[in-house]
Structures are given as C-alpha cells and as structure tokens.
Design goal:
There is one protein chain. By secondary structure, the protein is α/β, with parallel strands linked by helices. Helices cover about 40% and strands about 15% of the residues. The chain has 13 helices and 13 strands. Helix 5 links the parallel strand 6 and strand 7.
Length: about 375
C-alpha cells in the first residue's frame, strides 16, 4: 500500500501550526508502508529530505508551481499515475478533482475560514482573504467525498459538523496535537523563572492582540507589577496598531528551539484569541511551568481543563479583572507543576501518528 501526503507546509523557518503538526506526525510514524511526500517548494523539498533521511520508506517529490496548479492539477495526476492507495490532504485545503480509486483523507484543523465577519474578524490582508475563499471552496467541494476527516479537538468536530452537516459525524477522527519533550521542564527549574509574561500569537484579527494589548497598556497596576512582556509572532507594535511601550518586546517569528527559552524564563502566558481549534502554545507553556491565562472561547477550555485561568477576550472589564488577579500569582509550586505534567501525557505524538497510519491502512480495505 502506498500512502501519499501533501507536505508543502513543512519548512525550516519558524514552523508552527499545520506545518508543525504534520512534521511531528511524520517524525513519529512507524510503518513499513511506502510514504510519498509531495511539495511545491524547493526549500521544503530539501528540508524534508534531510529531516526524514533515516526513514527508508519515505520518498520525496517536488513540483515547483503556485499553490493552485500544484493542488488542483498535479496532485490529482500523481494520485493516478503513482497508483497511490490513500492520500492525506494536510493543509485545510483539498484537490477538487480526484481519482476515485485513491482514498482521500482531509486534515481540517478548523473552519475559521467559513466564519462570518460579524462573528469573527475577517482576514487583514489580501493574501489571507484569498486563502479563506480558496479553503472554503475546496473543502466545500471535497468534504463529502473524503473517506475520513482528521481534526484536532472535539470543539473542532462540532464546528465542522455545524458548518458542513451532521451526516459527516462518522467520518471525523480526533487526533490532537502532541507535546514535544523539549518544552517539559523539571520542577527544580521553576525557581529560575522571571516575572515576565509571554504571548505566542500572530497579527491575524482572530488572535485579538490589538484589543488585548490596548487594554493591557491602560492597566497601570499590572504594568507596574510585570517586569517585561514578550510577544512572539509579531514584529513590532505598528503591525497591530498599538502604542509603543518599553515594557513590551516584539520578537517576530522564531524557531521552536528559541521559543523554549522564552517559556522557561516566563511566569505567565496569555492567549486572548477569539477562536482556537486547539492552541498549541497553551500546552507548551503549561509543560514549561507557566501560569496560563486563556480565552474562554474556542477549544482552550477543552484542551486545558482546569489547568488554566479563563477570561472573556471580548470584554475589557473581564481582561482587566484577569490582569489584576495576575498580580497575586507567585511562581508555581512543584506539586502543581507535577499535576500539570501528568495531565499533559494525553497529548502524545506517537499515539497520533499510530492513529493516522491505522486510518490510512484501513482505507485500503474499503
């Protein structure tokens, strides 16, 4: 059996989100079945060959073109010519025309791209707007013909069913994000934490950073209490149209290896998003001994359970109350940290990889 996977989102620069999800799934795969990885970017192709050079059953293919030609023409052709048994579309998009002999699996992390801007903010640039339209079009035309749909949380399941129909319920499989061991710290290191706060985010409106930072900058008690705030994923204050503050450093996009140090040295993580289908920084920060203050919207309450403090990210009053409460928090105690680490064992990449391979192998029997 041959398994094909669209791996174009895996690249060497600041990989997060869907690309990091797929990379970790592939890294932990244990099967002798041939796995064909496809990409339309040379830099991604070279990175894949190096990253998975020890996996003898992996083969790598490059077709340099724009996203639409690659996905709508090239992938359907190779599914037929390479006699691929099962193909995994991994980027919240899909080929519309498809070889019926090749079983299709869709990975859909969320359906934020379908949301009305009355409920969730729209994209903040032309490329993102086109991306939302493209995703909405391709998934709408492909979702009913998919053999299985993989997503990352029960919140995302309900959102997919609410958007595309409850008849898809039997097709959906939850494979949550896993926790990389690099973020797990020993309780002995808790004492080395600084009185700093961290946001691992982006400038997309659904991340809600502009409203959150503007509210935070008006909270004089919190600003006097906190030593510094680091914002990962945003390059400067102008990117989100907020006032400059010497208390805030905007670090832009950084690799995971550098991100580890920010978690280890910070005592607090804030996630003010309006919509998250999972929220990977929340479990990374929790494993690193941070107090996590997270949005009550989206999947975060499901993902974190009672290991975080939740607030309404749309309410300035609620944000202010949360920021006032932060001032009462000391560094985590060892017992509290150990409980969090036990809870986080459920987020395991090996289990997720095994589950995906089983889905692919079962598809060959249909």
């Amino acid at each position: 059996m041959i398994i094909g996977i669209d791996a174009r989102l895996i690249s060497p620069f600041g990989m997060r989100g869907m690309g990091l999800y797929l990379y970790n799934i592939l890294e932990n795969i244990d099967t002798s079945s041939p796995i064909f990885l496809y990409t339309n970017k040379l830099i991604s192709f070279n990175y894949l060959k190096n990253a998975f050079k020890d996996k003898k059953n992996f083969k790598f293919f490059l077709f340099e073109s724009n996203e639409v030609i690659y996905e709508q023409i090239y992938l359907p052709l190779i599914s037929f010519t390479k006699k691929i048994d099962c193909f995994v579309h991994s980027g919240d998009t899909s080929s519309v025309l498809w070889n019926s002999e090749c079983r299709k699996i869709l990975v859909i992390h969320d359906v934020a791209f379908t949301k009305s801007t009355n409920k969730y903010p729209g994209a903040n640039n032309l490329r993102r707007k086109f991306g939302r339209l493209y995703r909405s079009f391709t998934i709408s035309f492909s979702i009913n013909s998919a053999l299985k749909i993989v997503t990352v949380s029960n919140f995302a399941v309900h959102d997919i069913l609410g958007t595309y129909g409850r008849h898809l319920k039997s097709k959906i499989i939850v494979i949550p994000n896993g926790l990389n061991k690099q973020f797990i710290i020993d309780a002995a290191l808790l004492k080395n934490k600084n009185n700093c706060a961290l946001l691992v985010t982006g400038s997309d409106p659904q991340k809600n950073c502009k409203f959150f930072i503007r509210t935070l900058l008006k909270h004089k008690t919190f600003l006097q209490f906190i030593d510094h705030i680091y914002i990962i994923g945003i390059s400067n204050h102008k990117e989100i149209n907020v006032d400059y503050s010497e208390k805030i450093s905007y670090m832009g996009h950084i690799p995971s290896s550098e991100l580890t140090n920010f978690y280890v040295n910070s005592n607090f993580l804030f996630i003010p998003s309006l919509y998250e289908s999972f929220g990977v920084p929340s479990i990374e920060a929790l494993a690193s001994g941070c107090h996590v203050f997270a949005s009550s919207l989206g999947a975060l309450p499901e993902v974190l359970n009672n290991h975080a403090y939740f607030f309404n990210p749309k309410s300035a009053n609620n944000i202010n109350k949360m920021l006032s409460s932060v001032c009462d928090f000391k560094i985590k105690r060892e017992k509290e940290h150990q409980k969090a680490l036990i809870f986080l064992r459920k987020y395991n990449w090996k289990n997720g990889s095994k589950k995906l391979i089983n889905i692919c192998l079962e598809s060959s029997k249909k």
